[in-house]
Amino acid sequence: MLGNEQQLLNDNVHVFRVRVYYEDTDAAGIVYYANYFRFAERARTEMLRSAKIDQNTLFETSGVRFVVRSCNIEYLKPARLDDELEVHTKIQCVKGASLTALQTVRRAGDALVSLKLRIACIGRCGRPKRLPEEVASGLQSYVQVRQGTC
Asked: What is the mean pLDDT of residues 95-104?
């Protein structure tokens, strides 16, 4: 990691920095395709932390967890060993029990991988549950469309 530096850009984007290590690559030194999911997951977790949303506390108090319902990923260019990457995360919109996240993995401003995820909010029994108000309000600085259609 590059010190886990994070920032909120002017256009409601959370940025998470990560360096590519040997363990992230295949024999040719190119990032293994599934590792982009790991980078994106870490970035979403850090975005929640920056919005003062602690997932363990949220589960203990509200019985709510986030799960990936669907993910569309497009690989544009490869990342390589020792690259410094940024994962840009935006919340496209928030609905009652779900949100849509757009994530782009970048190297020096160049888009390498693009992900569109539908994140569901579920309760202890695994059924959909409305996002608690504190979560919806905590995410407002990253939301592109307020309660719009996703």
From this structure: 95
